[in-house]
Structures are given as structure tokens and as C-alpha cells.
TrEMBL record:
Name this protein carries in UniProt: Major facilitator superfamily (MFS) profile domain-containing protein
UniProt GO cellular component terms: membrane
Keyword Transmembrane helix recorded: yes
Subcellular localization, as worded in the UniProt entry: Membrane
Species: Gossypium raimondii
Amino acid sequence: MAEGSNSFLDDPCLSPSSKKPPGGWRAVKYILANETFEKLASMSLVANMTVYLKTKYNMEGVLLVNVINIWSGTSSFMSIGGALMSDMFLGRYLMLLYGSISSLLGMMILTLTAIVPKLRPPTCIGQINCIDPNLWQLSTLYAGLTLMAIGAGGIRPCNIAFGADQFNTTTKEGRSQLESFFNWWYFSFTFALVIALTAVVYIQTNISWVIGFAIPTSCLLVSIVIFVIGHHAYIIMKPHGSVFVDLVKVITAATRKHRLDCSRCSFYDPDFHPRTKQLRCLEKAAVIANQNELDEDGKPKNGWRLCSIQQVENLKLLLGMMPVCLAGIGCFMTMDQQTTIGILQAIQSNNVLRSGFKIPPGWMGLSPMIALSIWISTYEILWVLQTKRLTGKAKRLTMTQRINIGLISAMACSIVASFIEKKRRTAALKHGSFKSPMSILMLLPQFALSGLVEAFAAVAIMEYLTTQLPESMRTVAGAIFFISLSMASYLNSMLVNIVHKTTKKGGKTSWLGGHNLNNGKLENFYYLAVSIEALNFLYFNLYARRFIATSCTINKESKEDQHNNEDQI
């Protein structure tokens, strides 16, 4: 190993001693194996949960959408708690271990619901007079989903970061190994996702839910065993504190000093960080109101009363990115609608091909992934390489352009979904059947457009957060992205409830149709979604897009100033 890595390996915060030095590919082989089995387990359940709750718990549309959205939103939001616990108390290794155990317990409970008939309501035959699940049946289900959400909160913020901990990025070899690790990590993720969305979903839908749930539960158990076996090979960093706390400190200190007159104030600015003009009220957190706030070394005695200008500017930068994130939430809502309401449409469509093969409704989730992959490969191979060959410089779409294409794709997705739903429902009513004679393949365009929303808007927003925040705040970038996903799920649930309560007034049937979409007018819900997406498009272009340019400028000036200070030192 390179000479520069000696201090890295001798650090007392690392894993216990062993004959071979910890870290590197010796550790990563366990991490990648663990990640493959864990993702195979989690995605096998997530991908087909809508179908399971509809067919085995007889959930009507509104309750089902609420359960899926709240579970998905909570899983994303719990990632913030997982990141805090990891950074401040447990460290990444223990957080991953505890998160995996929590997920395993949740999966075991869900597997029990598939094994024990009394844990579910009676099977609904012909979707007529369906018996709803009782309180204790729902309580058992919710207990399993809650444990899985807690587990996801511990795993998501730590899995990639723990793998990255195994390499010494101060050396060229370490940086090269880290890049290779990312490639293998995404390969394992994609491999697990494809297996989950094809083989396991098929088994669950067409063969047995018991076997279909036992497979991912067993995979997660194997994942935990592999992870623990590799303990001796890991570099295990001690908790080092969280940047989230610094942001809260700024808000607290600024609130405490909000009445101070700052016309002749001196600031605590040891790094000579440039001050921006936005949100000057937050700068009161860095005001030295009394020299007693500093110790003998000139450092704050209480970080909750006095912060540095750099801490203040980090919070300003983060707040300045919120308008763009709000536009992203609107896109994520469209993606969520297809994973719930879109799957309900698939359940009530003809899934039998001429050959007699039955397409599992959960396979519709493959369409967004395929569309995303086709676009990325087309963009990177055809567009970027060809423009570089012709002009000598690769031309890429700007963040603003990509987000706009994503917003347009979201509108197109809902428009297509509304027309397809009207055709599906009309055919079902004409034949007097629960399942429409319309082929399930007719739903592919709306799911593909959902994938393009992710390919353009979601990827661009994640890139925006990651590249415009300083390296010390990369964890925050991931957290904000997860919060955006969480808010989209919660807002979708709120929208569905408002529409349901409003449209069923006067004894009318809800647009969402209860147990049977054919009794409602789901296309009207999609029309409403188009209107919301159009407003989001206007919001982004008339207001939010300016913050992309602003944050890019601030970030560039900050880096230039940092380089100047380093040159002076």
C-alpha cells in the first residue's frame, strides 16, 4: 500500500487489529455481497407491495395509496435520523447492522402475514362484497412496515459511505479504487433490482406469496451473516459529529441575538469566509456580542451562542437551494403516483398475452428503469460523444434544461395516463368485468414517461445538490434529497385524501373508485395532477430557476476565495 496510507491505517478510530491491514478490497467484497442480498430483499417487497395489499388485504384505493405513500415517505424521512445516529453516536457499521436487523424483523412479520390466513381478511372473490381488514390485522401489517421503515432509515445513509470508508482517498491508488467501488456498487444494485422486479415478483404474483416473501427474508438474513463475518476486515470509523447540528446551532444563535444592532458588530470569522448579501439576519449568529463569548484561544465557548461566518454561509447556501427542491417535489409526486395508482390500473387490466403468459402487474416497475437506462446510454454515447467528435467539446444539457424536460415529462405522463385510464375503464364497463379487456401493455407509455421524469429531473436535482454544496455538506445533500422524496409521498397522500373526500360528497362515488377503479373517474384525478404539474412548471421557470444560477455563482466565488486564502497562507 502507498506510503501516505500509514497514518490512515494506524488511526485509533479504525477497526481492531488483525494480521492483515483492514479496508480495501478485502473488506469491500463483504460489503458488496451484503449490499446485493440486502437490495434483493428490500426491492422484492417494495416493488410488489401495492399488489399484495390490494389482492390479499382487500384494500380500497384511498387506504392503499395512503399506506404505501406514508410507508415510502417515512422510510425516506427516517434516513435523516439514521444519518444523525450514525454520525453522532453509533458509527456506520453499527447503524447498518441495527438497521438490517430491524428490516429483517419487519420482513419476518410480513412473511407471517402471507403464511397465516388469520392475519389477513378473507380473499375477495370477484371484487364484490370485499371484507376489509380488521384492526389487529392492520396492526400486524403496520408493525412489519414500521420496522422495515426504521431499517431503511439506518441502511440508506450509511451503505455507500461505509464502503467509501474502506479506501484511503489521500492516495491516487485509493481514489482509483473508490471509483471502481462505486461502479461495482451500482452494478450490484442493478443486478439485485432486475432479479427482484422479474423473478421474485413473478413468484409472488403467479406462484406463491409465501415463497415470494420467504425468498427476500432469507436473502436479508444471508446479507446480515455476510456483513458480520466481514467485521474483522472493515475499517470502522468512530462517530465524528454531524453537520446537521451546525445548521441548527446557527438558527439557535441567530434567534438568541435577533435584537442585536449589527451596524458596528464584529464577526467571528477565523477562516475569512466571504459574506453574501442574502439572509443577513442569520449573520447575527456570528456576531461577537461580548468578548466573554471567546475562550483564551479565541474560539467560541458555546457553539450554540456563537457560530462562524462559514457555518452561517453554509446554512444560507442550503436555504437558497430550497426553491429548486420544491420544484423537484412536484416531479417526485408524479413518480409516486405511478408506483401506486398506476399499479392499481395494471391490476385491473388484461395481463394475459396471446401465448397464455400472465404479466405480473409489478413488472410495470421495469418500464421506468428501462426508459431511464435507454435515455442515459443514448445521451452519453450518442449525444455527448458525437458533439465532442464534431466540435471538439462535449455539449451537455444544463441543469435547468434537464429539470424543464423532467417537468414536461411529468405533465405528459399524467396526460397519457388519463387517456389510457378512460379507455381502460370504458372497455371494462362495456364488458361488465372487474378486469378490463384492454391489455396491460397499454400502460407502458405512462410508466416509461415516469422513468424519464427520474432520468431528467431527479438526476439533475441530485447533481445540483451534490455539486453546489461544499464537500463537508455532502451528507446534507443526500438528506435533502431524501426529504424531498418523503414530502412527495406525504403530499400525494394528502392530495388523494382531499380528492376522495371532496368528490364523494352528496352520495357520489369517489374519483378513485374504492375497491373498484371502474366505479370511479380516475382520469379526472390525472387531469388534476396535470394542472398541479403545469403550475409547478410555471413556478420553476418564473421563480425557482434563478436560484440555480445564483447558487452556482456563490459556490464558484466561494471556491475562488478559498483558493486565494490558501495561496496567501
